[in-house]
Design a protein that fits this description.
Elements (H helix, E strand, L loop, with lengths): L3 E4 L2 H7 L17 H8 L7 E5 L5 E10 L6 E8 L9 H16 L3 E7 L3 H9 L3 E10 L2 E11 L1
Antiparallel strand pairs: 1-2, 2-3, 3-4, 5-7, 6-7
């Protein structure tokens, strides 16, 4: 299966904000945090905020590239999200590979980072298969609870 990455549309965003996940992955539910909903609503047709569709044109995920850190240490990072019905079915590696390759062509980076909740073993395994290495970690308070995150990086 191959994927196509394109700019986000209002229709895409209306679907994104309905996505909810089972079990521990409900942490990623898009409808439970006003800041997350507003972020999606403000990302329509903006550079570096994309939707991912499959070969049939079905919306199956989203991604965004953004800067972290401060110059001269500024780093390009990626955030990704796959439609709940597509997770856990062996689609993750191809999904992340196509996203990072698209970003390399579009943005031209030689170093990329991402952060993943440490409980998300499924995603960590996919990122490692895609060549990401663990760089560090941090803790963040989200909705009143502390979560540990792993920073992962990849160089070309």
């Amino acid at each position: 299966m191959s994927y196509k990455i394109r700019k986000r549309t209002a229709e895409d965003v209306r679907e994104f904000i309905t996505w909810t996940y089972d079990g521990v992955y409900s942490f990623y539910d898009n409808n439970i945090q006003e800041e997350k909903v507003n972020g999606f609503l403000n990302s329509i047709d903006i550079d570096h905020f994309y939707s991912v569709i499959d070969e049939q044109g079905t919306l199956i995920g989203n991604c965004e590239f953004f800067h972290v850190g401060e110059a001269p240490e500024e780093i390009i990072a990626v955030g990704v999200q796959m439609k709940p019905s597509r997770t856990g079915k062996g689609n993750g590696l191809r999904f992340i590979e196509e996203i990072i390759e698209y970003g390399r062509v579009k943005i031209g980076y030689e170093h990329l980072e991402l952060a993943v909740a440490d409980f998300n073993k499924r995603a960590i395994k996919v990122y490692e298969k895609a060549g990401f290495k663990r760089k560090g970690n941090f803790q963040n308070n989200i909705r009143g609870e502390d979560y540990n995150f792993i920073i992962m990086e990849k160089d070309w």
